[in-house]
Amino acid sequence: MPPTPRVWQVCDACGHRLPDDDAAAQCPVCGGLLAIEHPAPVETVTTLRERFNHRCCMTSPGAMQSGVWRFAEVVHPTADQLVSYPEGNTPLLARDAVRRFAGCDSLLLKHEGMNPTGSFKDRGMTVGVTQAKRIGARAVACASTGNTSASLASYAALAGIPALVFVPVGQVALGKLTQTLAYGARTLLVQGDFDACLSLVREASARLGIYLLNSINPWRLEGQKTIVFELLQQLGWDPPEWIALPAGNLGNTAAFGKALREAHAWGLIPRLPRLLAVQASGAAPFATSFREDFAVRHRVKAETVATAIKIGDPASYERAVDAIRATNGVVTDVSDAEILEAKAAIDAAGAGCEPASAASVAGVRRLVREGAIASGDRVVAILTGHVLKDPGILQWYHQEAVPPSASANRPIEIAPSLAAVEQVLQNR
User: Fold this and answer.
1) Which domains does the chain have, with CATH numbers?
2) Which residues contact 347 (CB under 8 A, 6 or more apart)?
3) Whole-model pTM?
């Protein structure tokens, strides 16, 4: 193999450069966010594609079990002692019922809920915790609405590194909180919302020397951008017209923009897909800013059933703005009712997802109805989390909501007789 070119951590704001083994959580000069700067690969496009494809699917010598580390050259080429389960290798699903629901004939679902802890966060955490181990971090920490904390706890346990997670008391879905406890992280219930948790963990990182692993960590984004590299690989490097994703703290929006710009610059794809970032209406500061051409950065008090995107002051705002502009993207918001309706359609099609995931499909449906997405456009919607991440909302929606939704699947109490079963079959 050719020699590995130098990788840098570079400040978004002032351009200050740090070596790739520096433990800083943000720029020491101006406090800006750091990003990983990769040099252009030394291989030809054909060689690079062949290298990635050769490692795919665990069927050939040299294949990589991880759908993240398969792309090591453009993620973290200097990493060793990988902390990996493995993760990634998530499917692209074609579900006719969801296509009909969204009004999009070529809609595909990229199901990141099939990762080890049930969410896309594992892609970023394998890289972040590998870096933490590489620099000898005394402990790792994050603020979380649930998925990040579950993933951090799991990967920290795998690496043998102590973990602290800061979560807003009473605002984390049961499935996520119990994962975090089970994996052994010290779980701190903070009297405040996610934004208060993030502020506190950033201060703790700066003063106590704990390695911060929220999505402001540049290595986290390197892992998360492999969602895009993998789906492009699954499509034979023929990009779709749109990639739709839920938008909360905007780490994925930023990571997706970075991945697409790099893939295009390196010749892996001939054009850029458009990004569709979808927020919940009760937590939509980014969508509000988009409607004003990003003239003002808005902050809100977030309220939504989609707890994974219940964030009022997204940390990756500026990077996400760049991603939307670079891809001629769109930001929209959908109501909780629209999210739950889309979730019911996805669940009933056998795919299943947590509420925040369904925002992507609800957003596609919205843009199809508005005429921004043509019914024949090829669209990939990202499902970010597993259906069992939030069992409470499932119980409420299907068994307790009054009046029940038309999509609710209420259990039926019957007498212990074949006649009762036959009656159910006839009614069906």
Assistant:
1) 92-118+221-400 (3.40.50.1100), 119-219 (3.40.50.1100)
2) 353, 387, 394
3) 0.92
